């Protein structure tokens, strides 16, 4: 009982830490996003426009993450037997699709600026440069903070959050460099006609960040949405454990597995000698379950005693 309470308390503490970090991330994103929109209007920078679109996607992803954490806090696991993992995976796919739509919009705006170049306005650049410096510092801090939380309590939400912050930090630096170079070669070192192309060229870097992030979100979430079986390495771990317990069961009738967020659900169907007592069957099942859950972090293993007749009936 004490171990259960201790474990529950640890999980609650980790959940609160995640929730606070995600709320802080969302607050910082919105606080920096609004003045950046003003900077886009005053400067006419397509790089800043691309970053505004990118930040909009990141705010959406953070809102989804916060919704999931709040649902989990309220005890959604009592409503959904397999937790909120499927919803978490779906939101990652939706975020990835929104990112790809944003890429198309940014791409057309950037190409238009290449063929019809415009000099950036100094008023917007004066707002944008200090804003990007502040944004880079905050995002780097949140990147490191989310990464540390992910190491302590791994989950798709926090992994996505720290990767998002890492990409955002590099994007902030790219936008900052673009604005500084555009300002320098347009208003300080006058006479460089090619300076008008700095802004649209750097915006392709932002497109690259969005493309990688969008592809990662979609490609990593689709297999889980369709309940793809576990990776070969984990299947080998299961088979090794079954081999170690080979003499303790009489029939092997299959393994079913699926991911739900950070959890891995594994159902193993085994046949046992009919002369064994139920206590002996349970002892074998418990030892196999404990051994597998120790070797596969985040796994929830169920050993299901069954018979060949039951398997055949289920296949009809």
Give a description of the structure:
The protein is mainly alpha-helical. It has 2 domains: 2-225, Alpha-lytic protease prodomain-like (Up-down Bundle); 232-314, Alpha-Beta Plaits. It contains 9 helices and 3 strands, in the order αααααααββαβα. It has a 3-stranded mixed β-sheet with strand order 1-2-3. Helix 8 (278-295) links the parallel strand 2 and strand 3 (299-305). The two termini are 43 Å apart. Mean pLDDT is 78; it is low at 1-10.
Give the CATH level 1 class of the largest domain.
Mainly Alpha
Count of individual beta strands: 3
Q: Name the overall outline.
A: elongated
Q: Which class do the helix and strand fractions yield?
A: mainly alpha
Going across the major beta sheet, what is the strand order? 1-2-3
State the helicity in percent bands. over 70%
Query: Cα distance, first to last residue?
Result: 43 Å
Low-confidence stretches are 1-10
Any idea of the CATH topology of the largest domain? Alpha-lytic protease prodomain-like
